[in-house]
Design goal:
alpha+beta, 164 residues, 20% strand, 7 helices, single chain, 51% helix, elongated, 2 domains, 5 strands
Length: 164
């Protein structure tokens, strides 16, 4: 298994797709019931293969990831050949940007000395989807990129004002 098995809830949500997956392998509902009852290890393998297919599709389509902790916001743009990162770090441990109040503070105090902005770009390894999956396993979530684009635009404005 390349990624990880989908949770029971995810599998239930993807039940129609799983039925189609079994159908592509010419496994009928009756055969599936028989496999589950008499060959549970084969059933587990089928679920693992389906899980990998789902993950592969999701990771291929993902364009942005976010990982936000109390003092750090890591925003990733998943491009074709590389991952761009915008990292926002708050040096004041009393500020928790995962709360509504803490995030409001960050929005008002972006130029505060305790707030640091960093950017980085990293080329993918030989397995781009594996790289993306590692970030998800570390707590990142797939997003539409609103925060990444917000901070990216802010930094572009800052460069124009400063003559960069």
């Amino acid at each position: 298994m390349k990624y990880r098995r989908l949770t029971k809830e995810q599998l239930e949500e993807l039940h129609p797709e799983f039925i189609n997956f079994l159908a592509t392998q010419t496994i009928t509902a009756a055969e599936w019931d028989d496999i589950k009852a008499n060959k549970p290890e084969v059933a587990e393998q089928e679920i693992d293969v389906f899980s990998d297919l789902v993950w592969e599709g999701v990771l291929t389509k993902a364009k942005y990831l976010e990982h936000i902790s109390p003092q750090t916001m890591n925003l990733f743009h998943l491009q074709e050949k590389e991952i761009s990162l915008i990292s926002v770090m708050v040096g004041d441990e009393l500020i928790d940007i995962t709360t509504k109040e803490g995030y409001a503070w960050l929005q008002k105090n972006l130029m505060d000395d305790t707030v640091k902005l960093f950017t980085a770009v990293k080329k993918y390894s030989d397995d781009p989807n594996g790289d993306k999956f590692k970030l998800i396993e570390q707590g990142a979530i797939i997003t539409k990129g609103d925060l990444f684009n917000y901070f990216d635009d802010l930094m572009e404005l800052g460069k124009e004002k400063n003559g960069f």
